[in-house]
Amino acid sequence: ERLVSSRLNIARNDNLVSGIAEISIGGSIGVLWSELAVLATGCGPTGLSDNLERLCYLIVIASSGTVAFCRIAFGQGPVRIAEDALGYLEGSTTVQVRVAEWLGVLAILGALLALGSQVYHGSRMDGLSG
Description:
The longest helix has 40 residues, at 2-41. By secondary structure, the protein is mostly helical. The protein contains four helices and no strands. Helix 1 (2-41) packs across helix 2, helix 1 packs parallel to helix 4 and helix 2 packs across helix 4.
């Protein structure tokens, strides 16, 4: 009976961490899509509403900021911190967390590249590009 309880606890924690990583991945993909559209056309993507684009940027800022804070303050990455706090995580969950972390870094670098491109081309920027 205790084994069943442990498995349920692992699954619950795994689902929590996996869900947060998936939200972060989705936000990063939205930001990367937006930046690609800005670089290609000078305008945000037509298939992504302004509110959803803003949400994607906020997700990336929150998730990447949290990762940066954890690495600076605790000297550990998000996988290690999650495992210390919640216990064992499945391999697929740790992969999702690492992918989310790297996509966040790419999204931030892409945002800087898109901003630099807009400044270089003299684009008028009033809020988001879309």
